[in-house]
Amino acid sequence: MTGGLVRILAYLLVVTLPVWLTTWLGEExxxxxxxxxxxxxxxxxxxxxxxxxxxxxxxxxxxxFGFDILIRFHKQIALTAAAFLVLHPILLALGGQGWYLLIxxxxxxxxxxxxxxxxxxxxxxxxxxxxxxxxxxxETWRLGHDLLAPTVLLLIFIHSWYTGDDLELLPMxxxxxxxxxxxxxxxxxxxxxxxxxxxxxxxxxxxVRREIEDVWTVTLVPPEGRTIGDYLPGQFHFLTFxxxxxxxxxxxxxxxxxxxxxxxxxxxxxxxVGDFTSSIGKTKEGDTAAVHGPFGRFSxxxxxxxxxxxxxxxxxxxxxxxxxxxxxxxxxDTRKVTLLxxxxxxxQIIFRQELEAIAAGDHPKLQLIHxxxxxxxxxxxxxxxxxxxxxxxxCGQDLSGRSFYICGPTRMAELLITNLRxxxxxDGSIRREIFSFLD
Length: 439
Description:
By secondary structure, this protein is of the alpha/beta class. The chain has 3 domains: 2-199, Up-down Bundle (Four Helix Bundle (Hemerythrin (Met), subunit A)); 203-295, Translation factors (Elongation Factor Tu (Ef-tu), domain 3), CATH 2.40.30.10; 300-433, Nucleotide-binding domain of ferredoxin-NADP reductase (FNR) module (Rossmann fold), CATH 3.40.50.80. It is 47% helix and 18% strand. The protein has helices spanning 2-25, 32-55, 59-62, 67-97, 100-103, 109-129, 138-162, 170-200, 318-330, 352-360, 388-395, 410-422; strands at 203-212, 215-221, 236-242, 251-255, 266-271, 288-295, 308-314, 336-343, 365-372, 382-383, 403-407, 430-433. The strands form 2 sheets. The protein has a 6-stranded antiparallel β-sheet with strand order 4-3-6-1-2-5. A 6-stranded parallel β-sheet has the order 10-9-8-7-11-12, sandwiched between helices. Helix 1 (2-25) packs antiparallel against helix 2 (32-55) and helix 6 (109-129) runs antiparallel to helix 7. The longest helix has 31 residues, at 67-97. It is elongated and about 80 Å long. 33% of the residues are buried.
């Protein structure tokens, strides 16, 4: 918590630094409306520059929050930056520079640079918000985003450098140049240098095992002379597979389903749900993969005081919870765990035999409940959907002292959180994993 607060305060300080510099060192105020418009632009540039830091998977930044939370903040703060940049010329016009600034054609070239940057900012934000509805594949969106983001930052830098008096101050010039160099350096490292380095030392596919009809576990071993790095059960990593030339080469994030106690290899269990993952079953032993991670904070090891845990899983959402259960088994942990695992049909239950074997032992003390929404006639277990009533049935009315870990489809997870809050479970006892960064 302390580490996260330090990072938040540092972020706020850096984002607002140009406002403090121009207030202390700049000329007298031109009027509250004009000053507000100018400050919005300064803060907007700082937010956009720091976006490259938030997205670059820098461990010091990510460690306190988890990359999934960080990337959602990255998305939401982009809306704030866009709003500030849109308001910037409007407030300047209202503050005395006139509406010709907005609608005039005979304007200096650097004003047109600013207008172009603003249009591209809005395009970047809107496409990011509606990527799914526009039918854009993730890799197509990502390529466009990678082209637009540095272009926008460079255009805004040029516009601000030649406009107004703020950038006549030496401290502001230094800050602007440093931020631009930092942002572009992070971009080049994140998108080009690090992937190249990881590709030069790839992991090797040791096994591709079919779990159920459309779910595969891919086991990787490190290159010779290297070992599996430390990770927490429940974390995820980024994988880029290098396979048959006819198969796509894309980077995707998947949960690590193996236990950290397994030092010889590392596994991810992957469901075929998209264009790329539909080809995962074509991965072969001997193929290679670049591995980058681990990331995330969805792990019981980060909360060592919890002794009575409830896992709520839906479909492929079992994977981070399976990693935790395997780790508890391997470390002979005796804490109490209740797993409510929802699927449509019996044949879709992933890891069924292994889960039953863990439940039959004492490490952990696992109560295993399967819930099917579309069972066959011979199913004797629970039916319906995973909801508050199911929690009441197996956890009782008094939920105090229990911690809840939720991973599954978005609608299911949101409903369960609502049900838990209605039963007076504090937010601090509810932990949720979200698979998609674009939700």
